[in-house]
UniProtKB/TrEMBL annotation:
The keyword Transcription regulation does not apply. Keywords: Cytoplasmic vesicle, Endoplasmic reticulum, Lipid transport, Membrane, Nucleus, Receptor, Transmembrane, Transmembrane helix, Transport. The chain crosses the membrane at residues 7-28. One of its GO terms (cellular component) is nuclear inner membrane. PANTHER family: SIGMA 1-TYPE OPIOID RECEPTOR-RELATED (PTHR10868), SIGMA NON-OPIOID INTRACELLULAR RECEPTOR 1 (PTHR10868:SF1). This is Sigma non-opioid intracellular receptor 1. Functions in lipid transport from the endoplasmic reticulum and is involved in a wide array of cellular functions probably through regulation of the biogenesis of lipid microdomains at the plasma membrane. Regulates calcium efflux at the endoplasmic reticulum. Homotrimer. It is found in: Endoplasmic reticulum membrane; Cytoplasmic vesicle; Membrane; Nucleus envelope. It comes from Hippocampus comes (Tiger tail seahorse). Pfam families: ERG2_Sigma1R (PF04622). Belongs to the ERG2 family. GO terms for biological process: lipid transport. It is a single-pass membrane protein.
Length: 222
C-alpha cells in the first residue's frame, strides 16, 4: 500500500509538471511580445564598428523612443559581472520580464566557455570585437564580426569564445527564469561573489517591477 501511494504521488507530481510545461509553452506561443529579434538586430547594426560606449549610449536613447516605459532609466543601468559556463563578461540590463530581455553584453578580456542550454531563443548582434562559436555536433567553429547577428536557438548548446573588447546587444525570448541557472551557477558555486549576485537580482527585480507597472498602466488599471 505504501509503495502504491508513493507511485501515485510521483505520477501526480509528474503530471503537474507536464501540465505546467504545456501551459507555459502555449502561453509563450500565443502571447504578444514587445520586441523582435530582427528589430533589435537592425538597430544594433546601425552602430556596428563604432566605439562601444558611444554606440550603447545612442542605442539606449533610440530604444527608449521606440519602446517607452520598457527600458530602464539611466539611474538603474549598471554593469554587472557575469560568470557563466566558464567564461567571464559583464552585462547591463535594459529590459527584462518573464518572457523577454534586452541586455548589453561583452568582455574586456579574452574569455571562453560553454554557452548553456536554454528554454529561450537568444540573438547577439556584435558592435565590436569578434565572437567564435563551436556548435554542438560539428567539428569546425564559426567566427562573427561587428554587424553580424548570432542566433542561439532554444535547446542548442555551443562552445563560445570572445576576444578582448567584444561588445554586443543581446535579445532573449522564451521562459527567461530558465536562463538564470547557468547565469548564476558559477557565481554561487565558484566565484562566490555574492555582491555581484545581489546586484544581479536587484536590477532584474527593478526591471520586472517597471514592466509590471507599464503593463498595468497600459491596461488602464492606474
Amino acid at each position: 500500500m505504501a509503495l502504491f501511494r508513493s507511485c501515485f504521488r510521483l505520477l501526480v507530481f509528474v503530471g503537474v509538471i507536464v501540465l505546467a510545461v504545456l501551459l507555459l509553452r502555449h502561453w509563450m506561443a500565443t502571447k504578444q511580445y514587445i520586441f523582435t529579434h530582427d528589430d533589435i538586430a537592425k538597430l544594433a547594426k546601425q552602430y556596428a564598428g563604432q566605439d562601444h560606449e558611444q554606440a550603447f549610449s545612442k542605442l539606449v536613447v533610440e530604444l527608449r523612443k521606440r519602446y517607452p516605459g520598457h527600458i530602464l532609466p539611466d539611474e538603474d543601468l549598471q554593469w554587472v559581472f557575469l560568470n557563466a559556463g566558464g567564461f567571464m563578461g559583464a552585462i547591463c540590463v535594459l529590459h527584462s520580464s518573464l518572457t523577454e530581455y534586452v541586455i548589453l553584453f561583452g568582455t574586456a578580456i579574452d574569455t571562453s566557455g560553454h554557452s548553456g542550454r536554454y528554454w529561450a531563443d537568444i540573438s547577439d548582434t556584435l558592435v565590436s570585437g569578434s565572437f567564435r562559436r563551436w556548435k554542438e555536433g560539428t567539428t569546425k567553429s564559426e567566427i562573427f564580426s561587428p554587424g553580424d547577428t548570432v542566433m542561439h536557438q532554444m535547446g542548442e548548446a555551443a562552445g563560445v569564445q570572445w576576444t578582448a573588447g567584444t561588445w554586443m546587444v543581446e535579445y532573449g525570448r522564451g521562459f527567461i527564469p530558465s536562463t538564470l541557472g547557468i547565469a548564476l551557477a558559477d557565481t554561487l558555486f565558484c566565484t562566490q561573489d555574492f555582491v555581484t549576485l545581489f546586484h544581479t537580482f536587484k536590477v532584474y527585480g527593478k526591471s520586472l517591477l517597471m514592466e509590471t507597472g507599464t503593463m498595468l498602466a497600459e491596461a488602464g488599471v492606474f
